[in-house]
Amino acid sequence: MVIASTNPMKIEKIREDIELPIIDLHSDRSQASLQIVKACEQYGFFKVLNHGVPQEIIARMEEEAQGFFAKPGSEKQRAGPANPYGYGCKNIGLKGDIGEVEYLLLQTNTPFISHKSKCISTDPNKFSYAVIGYVEAVRELACEILDLMWEGLGGPEASALSGLIRDAESDSLLRLNHYPSADVIDHPSPPKIGFGEHTDPQILTLLRSNGVHGLQISLEDGVWVPVNPYPESAFFVNVGDVLQVMTNGRFLSVRHRVVVNSYNSRLSMAYFAAPSLDVKINCLSELATPQKPPLYRSFTWGEYKKATYMRRLGDSRLNLFKLQPDDEKRDSFC
Ligand SMILES: C=C1C[C@]23C[C@@]1(O)CC[C@H]2[C@@]12CC[C@H](O)[C@@](C)(C(=O)O1)[C@H]2[C@@H]3C(=O)O
Ligand SMILES: O=C(O)CCC(=O)C(=O)O
Ligand SMILES: [Fe+2]
User: Fold this and answer.
1) What digits encode the pLDDT tens for the residues 210-223?
2) How many angstroms separate the alpha carbon of residue 177 from the centre of ligand 2?
3) From CA 137, how far away is CA 301, in angstroms rounded?
4) Which ligand is closest to the CA of 98, given by its number?
């Protein structure tokens, strides 16, 4: 165990020796689905190989993202400020959170992408073509992972989870993050925070990075585990708050953060799979029993999203929806 800190006033524990699960989607289906369930229960995080997202689609999206972040600040500002969508620099969200990051936060519906591309790129058709292709391919991967998960949990209706994000009104987002290299910000020691600790509010996040270190996940005891960025071809998957609620706490919505500690700049592309705003989020009936009654009250995704935006990045929003032991809704199963 190595002791390190990102805050001079606080000693943090970091564990470099944990191998996070890697799941090969070409392996036997029932084996892959059980591995996914185990990873979601243990860490709320895993990596997937043989994911089926074509390399040229990833490369095209990465090239557009790199091209955008390489522009002068004044040009990038044309796509900002992020309120919450668009270009943001250092300010994350609407509540004063700051990080060593610049980003583009985009809705994933075609009209939004086509419209927003006009202030992002001098070749908006090329930019929107790259984003639309990437979003479609990554959505397919997210659906495949959710189907495998649902099978592993013994769920009866084949596409119960994936149907939520296939919906044309789905509120899924794409976020392109760029963290400047440490030499640009003067090799800070302890390392600076690129993206402060948080959980992702949605169902599932699928993340790609350019192979530069920085992402860390938090174990339940508060110890930080650096996620090595390899294999570079993999997608990294994390459970979001909504999936924790739907699985009645069986899957963990993992806390994570990004530290800027590298000589190279990090580029990450996160797809946040979400249902449409009016979808009611309940725990799946198969996962509540008299011995394990529902932990959270039901809410719509729109209600949860609103609560998220009213709070700071690191706040734990799930607590607001927790049922108390004496709450009668706890006994009226999902
Ligand atoms: C400070 C905030 C930024 C955020 C909305 C929030 O109020 C709290 C959650 C943040 C987060 C984290 C995961 C995703 O990056 C994100 C897009 C999301 O859905 O929730 C961001 C929000 C944001 O940057 O707009
Ligand atoms: O950049 C990363 O690796 C993670 C970013 C992240 O957690 C987010 O955008 O919500
Ligand atoms: Fe995140």
Assistant:
1) 999 999 999 988 89
2) 7
3) 23
4) 1
